[in-house]
Amino acid sequence: MTLTDDARAALATGPVCDSCLGRPFADRSFGLANAERGRALRTTVAMEDDEPFEAVEPADCWVCEGYCGAFDALAETVVDALDGVGFETYQVGSRVPPLVEENEELLREDAGLPADAGEPLKREVNREVGRRVGAATGADVEFERPDVLVVLDLEAFDPRDDDEVTSHAVDVQVNPAFVYGRYRKLEREIPQTEWPCRECGGDGVQLGDEGEEPCEHCGGSGYMYETSVEQAVRPHVVEAMDGDEGKFHGAGREDVDARMLGAGRPFVLEVKRPRKRRPDVEALEREINEATAGAVEVEGLRLATYEMVERVKEHDASKRYRADVAFDEPVSADEFEAALAELGGTTVEQYTPQRVDHRRANLTRTRTVYEIDGELLEADRAEVDIHGEGGLYVKELISGDDGRTEPSLAGLLGVGAEVTALDVTGVEGEDEPFEREAYFRDEPRDD
Predict the structure, then answer these.
(1) Same domain, 130 and 11
(2) Which of 241, 292, 297, 367 could make an S-S bridge to 184, C-beta 3.0–4.6 Å?
(3) Which residues carry out catalysis?
């Protein structure tokens, strides 16, 4: 049968609007909207049969039951729902009433068309409403990870009763936004992320003889430490992007008592439900650094993508350290130099350190010491510089951790050794991922 014959069979099923007539033939003619295609087919059939042209309004269509006439109203409701939300990319999805989906199946069946002919109403709704939203907002459609995803529930209103499309028919999902940067931690005893009190669970209170009392362990703050890098950075970024909350992702972490110096450690701050996606990152950087009063510094803030979070979390960077070391007994310069020479370039075996075995699995890990150098400042005191593979336990490399790390500086010297102060001076890697343009948002468009 010809295309016109198939259209004639579809028209014979009952009153069908132009969109519903054109939709089953979307894969057989191109370059037209379904409504345009349907009108052209209706006109051709009328001319061939020498019958008057009879248009059918969507409200009278037995297939869509009026929904094809609601595209403008749906788009207007979506635009209203997005008012106040900053976004550059979007996607529209929809939930079509099961009865209408059944009507579509019946149309194809009664007209003798394949069950999968053309396209479903859902796809047309998404496209037609999405096109109108894009025209009204200037945003670009994005199917992988849009800034906002709008889902339309067509069952939430009845277009045949001229119901107004209410906000209940529109579900707006705002995807997170991301800011990348590097931080330096210039003071000790500052954790990377929030550290809730282990005694009160972060509540700041505990039960006493007279009911709830301030937690003695944390002084009622709810935290083990007064602040953290996350607490120093997150509130400013969340406020600048007018978001609901934020989450800190670091490329590894240093010990609480270690400073993070040099170029800093990469991080991404994830902001949930942001209403502004393009804050002034330079002003934000200044604001954070002024507020932290020298305890924490950030630099290189940039708008990033979701992929950057995964890249930061997965990056197995090598680290550089500077450690102040104290020995239990005097050590000669020759012994010191010989021990460092033996450690340089070697692979050590480290059983989970005693200081972290309460929160990490007991395993033996192998890590490489790329370089190690040092200076014996006094017979019982030295400064040691280490470049090691990611995951190397530096304190245990020095102390030996009662034999859990082999070889170690203490073991090679035959004396007790302890790190009294530790600084991370570099976070790097053979495959540095943090400056690739693909992971960052483009500059604002001029159009």
Answers:
(1) yes
(2) 297
(3) 255
